[in-house]
Design brief:
Radius of gyration: 38 Å
Structural class: alpha+beta
Strand content: 35-45%
Shape: elongated
Distance between the termini: 139 Å
Number of helices: 5
């Protein structure tokens, strides 16, 4: 029975499991179809696209929470492989290192997801021990589709090629009794958030975890940001010292960091924070990394109004302050008692970008209200919105607009007349007050003989 048979067996076991079964830990073999990069000796575990062949990765006795669905699930046997041209099989012991998200790897096929697995040679940064000469290292990069977790696993081969043990015919690596490449997992780096989309102004937590075999020491944690061809350091940590290059960036407390949590927190996101974040973990012997894509979004503000009062009227829909650039604007027209009908003749202004990086655009449309008037609606869809923004306005028929204009004009004339009459009355009242004041002044200040004159 091949790997497809194992997946079928697992799916049948899952479908027959009781939902109420008590969950407990159980050690199972996780079998993954992979591709092996035979060439491309890139330091630090970067793989080449050349000479890729089929391979199999067997993670032995990985602890998984069992809710009863694993009943009848047996350990993987190499005899189940196809005997003619079998794939290179890496038989990996995971006991020294924790393997996170094992359930996601194990149940991927039954969850209609795929696990991308690529294995390549890994070359140490420095030769620190004699065993380096007789061992080989490989790095397996695992990615669950649909935004699932990403895991990088570093494996060291077991056996001694110099003692002429059974060797693989093409890789010249020592093989175990069952013809597999025996390895042990020594180091892993993982993230359960390989891609995040967050609103501008919110806070981000970029997950990065790791686990290492006994005897290894954590030497450095480094977070870098790559965006549009440029890179910058965000945060660096060495034992006892952390340094933030981005204001407000923090790592977990040191006791959590030493326990395997190197997650990065970023408060008050701006558009400048968008990009690919590289979490690189360096131990006394190994180095591995995870990449988290952070997408920062800004929701648009929409305002619908009249561009002018001419006949026919022009409607304008202003969409401002959004990011990223792609936005969809849809116009509809609805007469009284009718259904909305799409209007395809809208025009758009040139795209504008603010100093902060957000975009704005306007869409205009000549309204044709008809004899009874119509409701025009501007609908804006954007990736930052759960639902499109909808704004509407009423376009009156020409007759109503003329009547309304006449009423407005008459009202304006009436108000002007009242204002004019009030002004005249005020002037007349002011003139009489002045005359009375002058007479009073004469009676008060002039002598009696002058008054007669």
């Amino acid at each position: 029975m091949g790997t497809e048979g194992w997946c079928l067996l697992l799916c049948l076991a899952l479908s027959g499991a009781a939902d109420t079964a008590e969950r407990q830990w159980r050690a199972v073999d996780v079998v993954l179809d992979c591709f092996l990069v035979e060439e491309g000796k890139h330091r630090g575990g970067f793989a080449s696209d050349k000479n890729m062949v089929k391979a199999l990765l067997v993670l032995r006795q990985v602890p998984v929470l069992d809710d009863g669905s694993l009943e009848g699930f047996t350990d993987f046997q190499v005899s189940t492989l196809v005997k003619d041209n079998p794939p290179v099989t890496f038989d990996a012991s995971v006991s020294p290192v924790q393997i996170p998200h094992a359930e996601a790897l194990l149940h991927a096929d039954c969850s209609e997801k795929e696990v991308t697995c690529e294995i390549s040679r890994y070359f140490l940064q420095a030769r620190q021990e004699a065993a380096v000469e007789t061992s080989a290292w490989f790095i397996a990069n695992l990615q669950v589709s649909g935004g699932g977790p990403s895991v990088s696993i570093l494996m060291k081969t077991l056996g001694d090629a110099e003692n002429r043990a059974l060797l693989h015919p093409t890789m010249n690596l020592p093989l175990g009794p069952q013809g597999t490449v025996l390895t042990t997992v020594e180091f892993q780096v993982t993230t359960h958030t390989p891609s995040l989309s967050l609103q501008r102004g919110s806070s981000a937590s970029l997950h990065c975890g790791f686990s290492m075999a006994p005897g290894l020491d954590l030497a450095r944690v480094e977070w870098r940001l790559q965006h549009k061809g440029s890179g910058q350091l965000v945060y660096s940590w060495t034992p006892g010292q952390g340094q933030a290059k981005r204001e407000g960036a923090t790592l977990e407390p040191e006791q959590l960091l030493m326990a395997g949590d190197a997650s990065l927190k970023l408060p008050s996101l701006t558009l400048k924070d968008e990009g690919a974040y590289i979490c690189q973990i360096t131990t006394s012997l190994y180095q591995a990394q995870q990449i988290i894509q952070l997408h920062v979004q800004a929701s648009p503000k929409v305002r619908l109004g009249l561009a002018n009062e001419a006949l026919p009227p022009t409607l304008i829909c202003n969409i401002a302050g959004y990011y990223p650039v792609d936005v969809t604007v849809t116009w509809t027209r609805e007469e009284l008692g009718g259904a909305p009908v799409p209007v395809p003749d809208a025009s758009f202004s040139s795209l504008r970008q603010s100093p902060e990086g957000t975009y704005s655009i306007s869409s205009s449309l000549t309204a044709e209200p008809g004899s009874a008037g119509a409701t025009y609606t501007c609908q804006v869809a954007h990736i930052s919105l759960d639902e499109p923004i909808v704004t509407s306005t009423w376009a009156a028929p020409p007759e109503q607009r003329i009547v309304a204009f006449g009423v407005l004009f008459a009202s304006s004339l009436f108000l002007l007349a009242l204002l004019y009459l009030g002004l005249q009355r005020w002037q007349a009242t002011s003139s009489k007050v002045c005359q009375d004041s002058e007479a009073l002044w004469v009676d008060t200040l002039l002598p009696p003989n002058k008054k007669k004159e």
